[in-house]
Amino acid sequence: EEIAELERLEEEKLKRQEQTNDDCQFLNTYSSVTDIELARATAMATIDAQKQPIEMLLEAHRGNLGDQQKNYDLSKKNPSVSESQLKAIEREIQEVKTNIVKQEAVLQEKLNEQAKINQRYDNSVQRYKYLKNKKVVGCQQDDKGDYYFICKDEGRCDIELFEPVGKDSKMATEPTDNGS
C-alpha cells in the first residue's frame, strides 16, 4: 500500500509539473484574453475559407441535380428518347447525388473541426482567467529546466491542477490532428 501511495504521489507530481510547463508555455504565447480571441478568429477564418469552395461546389451540384431531374422528366415524356438514354440520365443523376453526399460529409467535417477549435479556445480562455485569478504573473525555470509559477505578492507559488470544461480538453497552444 505504501509503495502504491508513493507511486501515486510521484505520478501526481509529474502531472502537476507537466501542467505547469504547459501553462508557462501557454502564458508565453498569450498575454491577454484578447490575444486568445484573435487567435481563435484566425483559426475560424481559416476553416471558413476552406468551407467556402465546398459550399459553392455543393450549390453547383444541387443546381445540376435539379437540371438533370428536369431533363429526365422531359426525356421520359419524349417518345424519341431511348431507354438507354434514360438510363444514362439516371446514372448521371445518381453520380450527382453521390457527389452531393460526399461534399456534405466534407463540409460536416469542417463544421466539426470548427466546433473543436471553439472548444479548445474556450478552454484556453478559461485557463487564462484561472491563472490570472490565481495571480500568476509569470514563470521561471529551475536548474532542472522545469517551470514554476511566479505569483503576485508571493513569488514562487504552486496552484491546483485545472481541468477545463468540455469534451476536448486540449488547450489552444496544443497541436490539433490536422497540424494547426
* Count of DSSP strands: 3
Helix content: 55-70%
Q: Flag low-confidence runs.
A: 175-180
Radius of gyration: 27 Å
Please, what is the oligomeric state? single chain
Overview of the molecule:
- By secondary structure, this protein is mainly α.
- It contains three helices and three strands.
- It has helices at 2-29, 33-77, 83-133; strands at residues 136-141, 147-151, 155-157.
- It has a three-stranded antiparallel beta sheet with strand order 1-2-3.
- A hairpin with a 3-residue loop joins strand 2 and strand 3 (155-157).
- The longest helix has 51 residues, at 83-133.
- It is elongated.
- The model is unreliable at 175-180 (pLDDT under 50).
In brief, what are we looking at here?
By secondary structure, this protein is mainly alpha-helical.
Features of the shown structure:
single chain, 180 residues, 3 helices, 3 strands, 69% helix
Question: What is this structure's SSE topology?
Answer:
Elements: H1 2-29, H2 33-77, H3 83-133, E1 136-141, E2 147-151, E3 155-157
